[in-house]
User: Fold Two component transcriptional regulator, winged helix family from Methylotenera versatilis.
Amino acid sequence: MRVLLVEDDALLGDGVRAGLKQAGFAVDWTQDGQAAKLALETEEYALMVLDLGLPKLSGIDVLKWLRGANLALPVLVLTARDTVADRVIGLNAGADDYLIKPFDLDELIARLNALLRRSAGQVTLTLQHGDIELTPSTHQVSKNGQIVELAAREFSLFHELLLHAGRVQSREQLEQHLYGWGEEVESNSVEVHIHHLRKKLGSALIRTIRGVGYVIDKESA
Assistant:
């Protein structure tokens, strides 16, 4: 899942980016509101982590612009402003969740996973497809009750396809979810990950729509 991190504190931003990448997220990091707005206009994200006290354009203004543009991107606000009035302002401007600095990285990741579940209309803590189960909070996948070891990007790719089962996604769309700015993308990387997932989870799980992309079909009711 690709996340836009908007934080002007270099030390904190670097730590959060490293922690999110270790948890399997692809992270783009900007340090002011104008850069965040440009990124949102040109890239596709699953989530945004947004500081409020930003240079050039405040976090509140970024939120108001985002919602004014009818973009439904889930937003978690990170801020040192801990009064009730500040939280009300942020939530009324369009934030989906709020975390006060200093914070625990594990809590941030748990809240992001919860936002992903809600945005996808998922009410359970796991994603199930036949005999395969994916648990985002622990980054585990099992088949017939047995843990299947997946590399970080294999897990992210499988999570993205399973979260949107029934929706065909192109190679370019999947690359957008897997890689952040500055990360080298080999021309056949998605195909390689798909090949590994099929070997580990079953050859029929991920279907290729020739000339279009890849899809995990929805299970019949």
Q: What stands out?
A: The longest strand covers residues 2-6. The radius of gyration is 18 Å. The chain is about 40% helix and 20% strand. The domain at 2-119 is CATH 3.40.50.2300 (Rossmann fold).
